[in-house]
């Protein structure tokens, strides 16, 4: 089993994508074969894969930010996961294992630096020791613009519309992908919008469920003088009664050691700290019946996560279970990321991939990737193949 350390968000350009500001005035008159909404690692990898398969297709990525990979992609742990935690035979497990292989092949081909530091899974009691044997058994089973594509930044999609029928009433004109005072046209649409995936799906008539609930993961940094204590990834044995894995130790490519993350409910979909609050996001969460069920189900561990987020001395006690020598003075505040977690109306977290279309004729030409759970960064190239297979099947490419 091996793990690679790399900040995938900063290496998105190695997927063959060179970002440039494309004028939407020129895009107004163009009709594309496929618009990919969302410039994170899954959207970019899928667009690249489609051009690999269909080099004559006219494809554009539209991204609301002024850079690609601004949110989940550039705020992940940087670990290339081995897939040992996932159920053998599940899509999640298969894509993770294939994604690991494809990632390392790609890193080698394009001279992208990484470290194979391994992973140590620590059992803290006899019950966890039994579960670690189960994990072992699972482990046993288990260049876009250069290619002719285009990237348009600062393009926040506000809606989709189908043009009126042509005069002979026999064929429909392209789909309009709208942003504030701008519009581009395409035959087909793929959305990979992460934290906003449910909102885009609703635009084409999809159900509200599953909704995206933002969970912030906060990391701590290990003091320079204690880095010698951690030479490999150190992970806990997962607790099946909890939705998230728990704190772990992650050596980074630059020599830093990340500790965490925790998991706290964010007050904004792009809320990277307690002071980031978005009223619209909070209201939507308050209207979600499943959120109350989720909070009630995990009220005790949820409160513990909040307290440890505010008091590092308590977080240090958790870390001492793995490295007893650590103290409160050995850790300091680190970066944070927000996970787009899909949740159904019963308050259950969706743990696998979810695809949706919409209603009417426009729905038959739009594919929404509504949930791509962790480890989506590790699996991105395999996920891209999976999505492209679905696009080819659904849209008859």
UniProtKB/TrEMBL annotation:
Coiled coil: none annotated. GO terms for molecular function: (S)-2-hydroxyglutarate dehydrogenase activity. Its cofactor is FAD. Its EC number is 1.1.99.2. This is L-2-hydroxyglutarate dehydrogenase, mitochondrial. It comes from the Eukaryota. The keyword Transcription regulation does not apply. Keywords: FAD, Flavoprotein, Oxidoreductase. Residues 33-140 form the FAD dependent oxidoreductase domain. InterPro entries: FAD-dep_OxRdtase. It catalyses: (S)-2-hydroxyglutarate + A = 2-oxoglutarate + AH2.
